[in-house]
Write a structure and sequence with these properties.
It is built from 13 helices and 13 strands. It has 343 residues and is an alpha+beta fold.
């Protein structure tokens, strides 16, 4: 039975709190990444800007050092997109999505790849990387149709300094098992883990949103949802929402400060639509086929109110609508700090 109805405003504040966007945290970087479910990171500075927005005193070198120390890793994970995640989450995420990713890969490729050939080539590349990380070009030289054809048959991580703020091109790779250790979780436990991580980062949420974020079918998640002890709410449309026991549900009147987000921020994607962080009238302006990289945005009172860019040593903002003078002052102050972070 549902405990009660949650309004969009309550869901907005819940997601903002769990994404560390209501107040900056002093959590260590790996713990922060676990809390927010990782960071989608197709553009290397994304993770740096996102962590700056949610961690007190964060410096660019902090994330680079964490990548070098292997407490966090950068790899292709949920929905086949690049993420920065805590080391402790990597294998759980990879194992949870592996079967679904392989099925999708074989279905959409034309001509259909031979799975045995993919496994043989993956083994060959693992042998190649036994002596150390390899550059993208070296890997591509082993695979006739391009090493990217291997997809989820070879779990790779991007090795620093590539894929960092200072060297943004991700061109140096190592197998996950050699970089952070062997696979250490079975699929049942991994599916439980990915459900818990999603709800901790984006809940309360319907089961369809969990599946959308993870890139899984609902059927993949049903056993995990039945195993876990979850709270149940409904939204204003009567749709069931699932949540973890004791997960934060802030008062809807909680103030939400101005925050700057990078491109492709997960809080703006379709799976989090229920929270209203990206007003639907602005969605075509942020995500469109004419602008695949998306745009960096800023939040006012917990919702996207415009875009920003770093240019000539300054943060230039482009509001979608007229802003209150007090909001402009707050936005200016935060923009000054973000400009200093870029220097």
């Amino acid at each position: 039975m549902a405990e009660r109805v949650l309004t969009e405003r309550e869901l907005n504040r819940a997601v903002l709190a769990r994404q560390l966007l209501l107040e900056r945290s002093r959590l260590p970087i790996p713990r922060a990444l676990e809390r927010i479910g990782g960071i989608q990171d197709q553009y290397a500075p994304n993770a740096y800007v996102r962590l700056w927005s949610c961690l007190e005193g964060f410096r660019r070198e902090d994330l680079t050092r964490a990548l070098e120390r292997r407490s966090v890793v950068q790899a292709t994970l949920m929905r086949g997109t690049i993420h920065v995640v805590a080391k402790r989450d990597f294998w759980a995420f990879a194992v949870a999505i592996r079967a679904s990713q392989r099925e999708w890969w074989l279905r959409v490729r034309n001509p259909r790849p031979d799975e045995r050939e993919l496994e043989r080539t993956a083994h060959e590349l693992r042998e190649l990387m036994a002596s150390g990380p390899r550059r993208r070009e070296e890997l591509a030289g082993v695979v006739e149709r391009g090493w990217g054809m291997l997809g989820p048959w070879l779990e790779l991580v991007r090795v620093p300094p590539s894929g960092t703020w200072d060297q943004r091109r991700a061109h140096l790779y190592q197998t996950a098992e050699r970089w952070i250790g062997p696979e250490d979780i079975d699929r049942e436990a991994a599916l439980d883990h990915i459900v818990r991580r999603y709800l901790a980062a984006f809940g309360p949420a319907p089961r369809t949103d969990i599946a959308s974020w993870a890139g899984l079918d609902i059927g993949d998640l049903v056993p995990a949802l039945e195993r876990l002890s979850l709270r149940r709410f409904v939204d204003e449309a009567g749709k069931e929402l699932l949540d973890l026991p004791r997960a934060p549900l802030p008062d809807p009147s909680t103030p939400a400060p101005v925050r700057f987000l990078p491109t492709w921020d997960a809080a703006l994607l379709v799976h989090a639509r229920r929270a209203g962080i990206l007003p639907e009238r602005y969605r075509p302006l942020v995500f469109s086929t004419k602008n695949p990289p998306s745009v960096p945005t800023f939040l006012v009172d917990g919702a996207v109110a415009g875009t920003w860019r770093y240019e000539a040593g300054r943060i230039r903002i482009d509001p979608y609508e007229r802003l209150d003078p007090a909001v402009r002052r707050e936005l200016h102050d935060e923009a000054e700090r973000l400009a200093a972070f870029h220097e």
